[in-house]
Every structure is written in C-alpha cells, then in structure tokens.
Design brief:
This protein has 253 residues and is α+β, with helices and mostly antiparallel strands. The chain has a single domain, classed as CNF1/YfiH-like putative cysteine hydrolases, CATH 3.60.140. It is 23% helix and 24% strand. It has helices at 43-56, 128-133, 135-145, 170-179, 200-210, 233-239, and strands at residues 5-6, 15-19, 64-65, 75-77, 91-94, 100-105, 109-115, 120-126, 154-157, 167-169, 187-189, 195-198, 215-218, 247-252. The strands form three sheets. The protein has a six-stranded mixed sheet with strand order 4-5-8-7-9-13. It has a five-stranded mixed sheet with strand order 1-2-14-6-3. The longest helix is centred in the N-terminal third of the chain and has 14 residues, at 43-56.
Length: 253
C-alpha cells in the first residue's frame, strides 16, 4: 500500500504532509505507518516507516528532524541534519533549506507553519496542555527570531481529536476557566452533568489568531473517528489495547 499524505493548499508550494497510518510496515495494534520511536513497536520497523516518510519528503533520514516531545512550550531551532539525541521540546523551526521538521501525534494537534516570503517554517505538537502553556505562540516567536513576520505566517492544524470525541472532566473544564473565563466557548455539555466535550482544534485556532497570525485553519479530520486512517490514544484506551501508533506530520523548505 502506498503512503497517504494529506496536504493543505494554504501551505503550498512548500513541501509538507500530514501522513495517515496507511502504507507502513508495522503490524498488530501498530498496523501501518507507526513513526513513534517511543512506542513498543519493533524499532527496526519504526525506522523503516520513518525512512519511507523521509523518502516521500525527498530528504535523507538524518534531515528528518524531530524532538523528544514532553507536552511543553519549548521550541528547538534546527539548522542542519540531526546527530545524536533529539532536543527536548514540542516544536521546531528552521530557515535552512533541505531540513524537514517532523512532529508525532495520536489525538493532539500537529500544527505546520510557513512564512512563504521569509522562507521560515515550523512544526508544533499541541495537546491541550502545550496549547494552554503557549507552545503555538512560542513557535511564532521562534520563527520571528529567524526573520519571519507573524502577519505573514500561515498555520494549518492537521488531524486531531474532534469535540464530539473529546469528553473531559469537570476539573479539566475548571482548569481552563481559571486560565481564562472566555474559554467556556470551547466546551459543550457532555453525556452526564459532570462531563464536558472539549473543542481542541477551535482552541488552537483561537490561540493562533489571538497571537496575530496571518492565517490559521484546521484540516478537519478527526483521529478518533477514523481508525483506518489515524492512530488515536483515546480510542486505544477505550479499546483496552496495550499501546498505540503515532502519526507523523512534516514540513520542509
């Protein structure tokens, strides 16, 4: 099976892709294109999958830059191929042609950024915690440090969990309300009085637009709702499976 790569017109002509799970070498619960080196999948199979992604992005594997993701607001500046352990961060930026920036997700938001005029790109892993702590704004700041202007930056949120599938607790809701009372707009009533449904991509778009970005959009695919195409941490949890694959999203100059 060939790789399936979702793209967004707003990022063209910069090469990019939100890869689905189709076309990979993994089997079992990881069936497909699992690129998660932190998963319990066979490391050599994950390396085969990552090599396929690098080939699709027309770079050598060391030029497929990544980070050790920890749900932070930290951003790594990448200026060449990676050698050794990746930096601990949840976003990457570069102005170096030939370097591809990769982010892994399995319900969280993969966000790809581009300032076409300045020739600066970025990629961020933004779950609810990272988004609340400012990883999206920090990515814009880091891109500006490389010569971008935020009013010229386009960001596209890739496949992530949708509001319909994202049930959260009252405590989760109260944490967001304590951060900003306007956050109520991102919650709907759940199936029971102590549950809410959280709209993660709408929250991400709000943070980006409030930060003054030129253009921001969501690609409108839900990871939870489409098991044939996407890995989902929450769906795996509900199914009682031992582990889950990670989707990869990539952009390169």
């Amino acid at each position: 099976m060939t790789l399936e790569i979702l793209t967004a017109d707003a990022l063209d002509p910069i090469r990019h892709g939100f890869f689905t799970r189709r076309g990979g070498a993994s089997s079992g619960v990881f069936e497909g294109l699992n690129c998660g080196q932190g998963s319990s999948d066979l490391s050599e199979v994950v390396q085969i999958n990552r090599s396929r992604v690098a080939k699709a992005m027309e770079v050598d594997l060391p030029h497929l830059a990544h980070v050790h993701q920890v749900h932070s607001a930290d951003v790594a500046v990448i200026d060449g191929p990676q050698d050794g352990a990746p930096p601990v961060a949840d976003a990457l930026v570069t102005a170096t042609p030939g370097v591809a920036l990769a982010i892994l997700t399995a319900d969280c938001q993969p966000v790809l950024f581009a300032d076409h005029q300045a020739g600066v790109i970025g990629a961020a892993h933004a779950g609810w915690r990272g988004a609340m702590d400012g990883v999206l704004e920090a990515t814009l700041d880091a891109m500006e440090g490389l010569g971008a202007r935020r009013q010229d930056i386009t960001a596209v949120i890739g496949p992530c969990i949708s509001q319909e599938a994202y049930e959260v607790s009252q405590e989760f809701f109260e944490n967001f309300m304590a951060d900003d009372s306007d956050n109520q707009r991102f919650f709907a009533n759940g199936a029971s009085p102590d549950k809410k449904q959280f709209d993660l991509p709408a929250y991400g778009l709000h943070r980006l637009r409030t930060a003054g970005i030129g253009q921001a959009q969501w690609i409108r695919y839900c990871t939870y709702a489409d098991p044939a195409r996407f890995y989902s941490y929450r769906r795996t949890t509900h199914a009682g499976e031992a582990d889950y694959g990670r989707l990869i999203s990539v952009i390169r100059l």
